[in-house]
Amino acid sequence: MKDIEIKGMISAHTIMAASVLMATVLPLLFVDGFSVYGTHLVWLYSVSGAVAAVNITVYWLLGISPPSKKNTLSYKVSKAFRSCLYFILSCFLFHTVVVLYGAPLLESALETFSFAVLLSTFTTLRCLCILGPNVQAWIRVFSRDGAMSVWDTSLQITTACSMIGAWLGAFPIPLDWDRPWQVWPVSCTLGATFGFLTGLVVAPLWIHWHRKQLTYKSK
After folding, report:
1. Burial class (CB in 10 A: 0-12, 13-18, 19+), 103
2. Quick one: average pLDDT of 61-68?
3. Which parts pass through the membrane (predicted)?
4. pTM given for the model
5. d(CA 158, CA 127)
């Protein structure tokens, strides 16, 4: 494993983490009364948009996504369409799962779907950027010993951290503390965001620490 790959990952993850910070700070200059709690949906979509834009740009510039089998315009349009479709389906899937776990079915439906968009941005969008709209590749990466590169391993770690963070964020909601961050889905979105940021830090450190044991083979 080349150290240059790890350094490239550290740079990419630093830019992504900075995008979350910028998405939290910059709206203060343009949106009256902006706050993470008071205008939570504005903050949520600001973070989702910033992370999405940075992910797509960084991975495209680094050439991480799998090479296209065809260079025709129709193939590229089809790939882009399938990527958008997978992302939208992911949002509805997360929305359904969250409702099954106890989120309101009709009340706060917009908030629930917005939370699903954030989760899809932290997980599915990164799969699309790194692996493309290839479900078989996604299954391979998230199976045991399925990673074929440091980016696959990074995807495993950041996805797991985002999901765990969102799950842990649900625990304070039923507590009778009457805090503003207990309103649905504030604590879950904050948990997912902190989980995502944690994954961005942990992934390069874990890969660097285990770089001698990690061997990637084509499958």
Report:
1. buried
2. 74
3. 12-30, 42-62, 83-106, 112-132, 153-171, 183-209
4. 0.92
5. 11
